[in-house]
Amino acid sequence: MGFIPVILTMSAAILLFILAVHNSLKSKKSQMEELRFSMEEGIKALTKDLSGMNMKDTDELSEIFHTAKSALEESHQEAFHLKVRKPYQQIKLLKSQYNQLIARKPYSFVAKIMGHQPI
């Protein structure tokens, strides 16, 4: 009878850990989507010829960023820095943090259980 509270406490701690990691990974994904949307809006506002490009793929995001930077006029440098470059840098940082978190051992088990894949 003395082991039942210990087992319940350990299982509750494991469940809370799983839920916290899942929430953290889901939060990073939603932050990346918000930043991608703000970057897309910034590119649409600054460069008209790139407004039809698809920004859903994270691999193409780098190409789109460099294309937008090269097509930019000199008068829009400050706006480009605020509306496109900062979100792009934050997306890269969040992607790196997300992939590093999934690669680490206790978190990789939770990622497999909850279906999170590296980006």
Automatic annotation (TrEMBL):
<keyword id="KW-1133">Transmembrane helix</keyword>
<keyword id="KW-0812">Transmembrane</keyword>
<feature type="transmembrane region" description="Helical">
    <location>
        <begin position="6"/>
        <end position="25"/>
    </location>
</feature>
<keyword id="KW-0472">Membrane</keyword>
<protein>
    <recommendedName>
        <fullName>LemA family protein</fullName>
    </recommendedName>
</protein>
